[in-house]
Design brief:
The chain is α/β, with parallel strands linked by helices and about 210 residues long. The protein has a single domain, classed as 3-Layer(aba) Sandwich (Rossmann fold). Helix content is about 50%, strand content about 10%. It has 9 helices and 5 strands. Strands 2-3-1-4-5 form a 5-stranded parallel β-sheet, with helices on both faces. The chain is globular and about 50 Å long. The relative contact order is 0.21.
Length: about 210
């Protein structure tokens, strides 16, 4: 029997292990895991330098109105060409286009980049939206181990990246990144190892009728 198509969209706090979980789960399920690879693919298909996408990656755009009013957000239409081609809002449209194309083509796991919102707005079904978070103490220890740095530097890095991700999500979706009602499944990874987090996601998929 053919396996049911699925997309797992993983939103993750920095240091909570969302990337590690996504990569491990993708390997176990035999599907692709997309994180920064999306930047390279988008650059190649749009003929825009990858550095532009990296500079804007998971960061809010620069339209002040969108930053002030939660109800105002950029349109998710087709990306535009011309003198505004490298504007942050347009780069997001290029990226969203690639995310939708990947999701329509294959089962996979996509990290961040408001993928859950992009796919929902596109009317793409079979999307499982995950949010992985952890307490600050645990995140600090993980980032200290990962980046070989001290606790103060690790905490500053975590707060900076999570702030960028929250502002990015609000800017492009009008929603609160940490609002758990935006997700199907939220997992606190503070006291459990990554394989256990992956197991929880697999169990949840089973309850949703996915044969994996």
């Amino acid at each position: 029997m053919e396996r049911k198509h699925f997309i797992i969209a993983v939103s993750r706090q920095y240091g909570a292990g969302g990337k590690a979980v996504g990569k491990a789960l993708a390997k176990e399920l035999g599907v692709h895991f997309y994180d920064e690879e999306i930047l390279k693919i988008t650059s190649e298909t749009s003929a825009i330098g990858e550095q532009y996408f990296r500079l804007a990656d998971e960061k809010a755009g620069n339209n002040l109105l969108y930053k002030i009013f939660d109800s105002i957000k950029p349109e998710l239409g087709e990306p535009k060409v011309g003198d505004r081609i490298t504007k942050p809002d347009n780069l997001f449209r290029f990226q969203a286009k690639i995310i939708k194309e990947i999701a329509q083509r294959e089962s996979c796991i996509i990290a961040g980049r408001a993928a859950n919102y992009v796919l929902r707005e596109a009317g793409i079904s079979d999307v499982i939206s995950i949010y992985v978070y952890a307490d600050m103490k645990r995140k600090i220890q993980r980032i200290m181990d990962l980046e070989k740095t001290d606790a103060e530097t690790a905490e500053k890095h975590i707060k900076k990246i999570d702030k960028d991700r929250a502002e990015f999500y609000r800017y492009y979706t009008g929603l609160d990144w940490k609002d758990m009602s935006n997700y199907d499944l939220c997992i606190n990874s503070s006291d459990i190892e990554y394989p256990q987090v992956a197991r929880i996601i697999k169990d949840y998929m089973h309850t949703r009728g996915y044969e994996i």
